[in-house]
Amino acid sequence: MIHARGLRRSFRTRTGTVEAVRGVDLDVEPGELVGFLGPNGAGKTTTLRMLTTLLEPTDGTATVAGCDLRTDPVGVRRQIGYVAQSGGSSPECKVIEEMELQGRFYGLTSEQARARSAELTARMDLAGLDQRLIKTLSGGQRRRLDIALGLVHDPKLVFLDEPTAALDPQSRANLWTHIKAMHREHNTTVFLTTHYLDEADALCDRILVIDNGKIVAQGAPDELKAGLAGDLVTFSVPVTDGARAGEIAARLPEVSEADVDGGTVRFRAPRGDVLLPDLVRAIDAAAIPLTSMSVTRPTLDDVFLTLTGRSLRDAEMGAEAVGEATEDKETADVA
Amino acid sequence: MWRDTWLIFKRGMVLSLRNPVWVVITMMQPILYLVLFGPLMEKITQTPGFPPGSSWQILTPALLVQLGLFGSAFVGFGLIAEYRAGVIERMRVTPASRVGLLLGRVLRDAVQLVVQAVLITVLAMLVFGLRAPFWGIVFSLAMVLLLGITMSASSYALALILKSEDAFAPLLNSVLLPVLLLSGIMIPITTGLAPSWLYWISRVNPFTHIVDAERAGFRGDFALNAITTGGVILLVLTVLSVWWGARTFQRESG
């Protein structure tokens, strides 16, 4: 659905050239729900704007929904839906006016556009709001309208830029449900950017981690986590049995960083949950009474930390100075 | 392209009609000039050096140009607001023609301007006894239409390049005021009235010729000399500004 090779984009600023995206390769297959995760200023939006024909790459090639980005941008536009971070509906317009106009841009007749609008507003829980001015909608409603606008031509591929930024937790969870439904029930390929770890974790089949304009890792959320530090397994036994339990645990396959502290044993394993039954049997066989046990899965923040040496939060702080300059330039550069 | 132009035009018209307050507010300025400044002109136009024609034949066409200059130059503010709301970007990701996205807006502004110009002309006729030949008025209104297209296309191009109200407002003011003064809208800049340096600077200003042509239309002077210079200059400006606007709208990036 998306195949990009060596995408680059640099911006000229007063202080020199800022390389926002430095050679991104990515492939998205039909039917995937892919998350593009990274701190602000990492190059997520710039990459997305290139893939949606809003920004011309400085270098590199890409085909999006079967059309070449450089030679057939109009073809790309016909095939994709795009929901920008800032939304895109006019506050002074009525819901139905924007929906109909959007449909007509894609070549639908007035009647077709209205029918499609009725279908989408119902699906997005916006039924009955047709005649409302968009400025009177709530934040969550407005965001759902933005998504409905992006789906008007039933695209096979949809780009969502920070879909839940600035939404309250309830609207956020609600929007997740809609995004999942769009993906599963309507078989839409979704490519979304986010800087929320929980969002990437909850929604995406596969995650691309971007930092400093380059993709630093990709995989399913569980795979990414398993590939790194692994799960942290902790269990407790009577203090007198601590050392013996530690030895037993360390003999299990793929265990690392085993550590005993009195009656508490800690170790890491790629799949702690899979290891638990073996662990229980081995401890039981040695006639040691288990008092408690737990598995802590690494978070995507651990993943980011291991990949880049900084946590996502630190990266955001650090990127602000550079990132702001880049983002200013991004807004200034798009004509 | 024409389909998208029409769609955008229609949308703009619906929005203008929903909130016609702005259309009325921009008309207030020329109306105030007619009421509070126009009566002063009656004696002044007797001064030697003034161009031919009655005071209302001199003032009304000039006010139409002023309306075109100021009313249309500020349309870019609306575009910056739309840009900020992501509307422009949303439309640019659709297959809609980017030239259409511009032209629809420009034509909406131009049509709105002509309607305002007609209302002001009718007001000047009914209340102040302006007399002008019918075809002269038609010619002048056609000029107003082109002027509206020119100013609005340029305003949109500039707005899209600057993308900031803070930069846009001072730039407009610093350009429009000298243009306005130098085009002799209030008091015509003629050899008989102005020192020669001022006269020559005003001749370099393309809008002076547009005002002259408008005035010629209102007094029914269809001599080739009076209307062609202004007409041709305006036509060239219109083509250039639409080309500039279209190019700015089309560009993928700055």
Q: How many helices of chain A? A: 12
The total tally of domains of chain B equals 1
Label the structural class of chain A: alpha/beta
Reported for the largest beta sheet of chain B, the result is: none
Which percent range fits the helix content of chain A? Answer: 40-55%
CATH class type of the largest domain in chain A: Alpha Beta
CATH-assigned homologous superfamily of the largest domain in chain A: P-loop containing nucleotide triphosphate hydrolases
Distance between the termini of chain A: 27 Å
Alpha carbon gap, first and last residue of chain B? 23 Å
State the oligomer.
heterodimer
Largest interface: A-B, 34 and 29 residues
* Total count of domains of chain A: 2
Radius of gyration of chain A: 24 Å
* Number of beta strands of chain A: 14
Strand content of chain A: 25-35%
Beta-strand portion of chain B reads: under 5%
What is the H/E string of chain A? EEEHEEHEHHHEHEHEEHEHEEHEHH
Given as residue ranges, the uncertain stretches of chain A (5+ residues, pLDDT < 50) are: 319-335
Order of helices and strands of chain B: HHHHHHHHHHH
Strand order of the largest sheet of chain A: 6-7-8-3-9-10
The helix tally of chain B amounts to 11
Your description of this structure?
The complex is a heterodimer of chains A (335) and B (254). With 335 residues, chain A is α/β, with parallel strands linked by helices. Chain A has two domains: 2-225, P-loop containing nucleotide triphosphate hydrolases (Rossmann fold, 3-Layer(aba) Sandwich), CATH 3.40.50.300; 230-296, Alpha-Beta Plaits, CATH 3.30.70. Chain A has twelve helices and 14 strands. Chain A has helices at residues 44-51, 73-79, 95-105, 110-123, 139-150, 169-184, 197-203, 221-227, 242-251, 272-285, 300-308, 312-333; strands at residues 2-13, 16-28, 33-37, 59-64, 67-68, 80-83, 157-161, 189-194, 206-211, 214-219, 231-236, 256-261, 264-269, 292-296. In chain A, the strands form three sheets. Chain A has a six-stranded mixed β-sheet, with helices on both faces. A four-stranded antiparallel β-sheet of chain A has the order 2-1-4-5. A four-stranded antiparallel β-sheet of chain A has the order 12-13-11-14, with helices on one face. Mean pLDDT of chain A is 84; it is low at 319-335. By secondary structure, chain B is an all-alpha fold. Chain B has one domain. Helices cover 80% and strands 0% of the residues of chain B. Chain B has helices at residues 2-18, 21-44, 55-73, 75-84, 87-92, 98-128, 134-162, 165-182, 196-204, 206-218, 224-250. In chain B, helix 10 (206-218) packs across helix 11 (224-250). The longest helix of chain B is centred in the middle third of the chain and has 31 residues, at 98-128. Chain B starts with a helix and ends with a helix. Chain A: Keywords: Antibiotic resistance, ATP-binding, Nucleotide-binding, Transport.
